[in-house]
Amino acid sequence: MAENINHLHKITFGWDITYVCNYRCPYCTVWDQPTKLNLTVEEWIGAWERVRRKYGRCYIYMSGGEPSRYPDFYNLVRALTRLHTVDVCTNLSWDVRRLVPAVGNDVLRVAASFHPSFARFEEFFEKAVYVKDYLPSRPEGAAVYYVASRAQIPEMAGYRERFARGGLALVPLPVVEDMDIGNDEREKRLIEELSPNKNDPRQKLEFQLKELSPQGKLCRAGHHYAMIRGDGSVDRCSVYKDKQVGNFLDEDFELFDGPRVCAQSWCPYESQWLV
After folding, report:
1. What are the pLDDT digits (tens) for 86-134?
2. Burial of 216: CB neighbours in 10 Å, binned 0-12, 13-18, 19+
3. CA atoms of 148 and 46, how far apart (whole Å)
4. Within 13 Å, how many C-alpha atoms sit on residue 201's CB side?
């Protein structure tokens, strides 16, 4: 399993490379959004070269949509990993053998999510085991993610057992509805029971389940981390949508010069950036 190395990079970006997705998950509202930027590999690499000159090698969570639906996905990842470390947030519907093991896990990582409404377990399981050395490392195994929607919660425990046979650890994620948590108290307790995050000293699970709030706390989001949207605008994090960090394609694009106070009541993903 791959060591978790994003903390070794001074700067981390989330990046919605495309909103196109080959799945239509009912708990996701992204796949029906238009992708307003359709740049070539060369154009994207030019922007990422500017970032490299300014901030050095960064850690990039490439997401979407489904990143592999970008038309030149494989060439983009190969080119980008020469500049930065890339973590592909994906449903694993692509040909993983076109990148693994040719691109090493020192520059390429995989954040794999299982969506049983659209993916056959056996096919996903085979690919997840194949890329296991690229998945996040947990004491329980290599992590695969699973959205704890009302329809999928009854199957969580069974899938956890099946994944464990391959050395994989199922990590349930709460449902996001209108930028708020979409799970009731019973569902939250089931997530807590099965989540490997329940012993995280940074209390990531407590923030995910809205038992802790980031509101009023200093956060490095916007300073050491930022979220690049599909139109090139940049927000502090997933729950901010005010474009206050700027536009990624601007020649003079830069991050905040220090942490800022968070005004949001919920932090479903990025609480690790709190000071």
Report:
1. 999 999 999 999 999 999 999 999 999 999 999 999 999 999 999 999 9
2. exposed
3. 38
4. 0
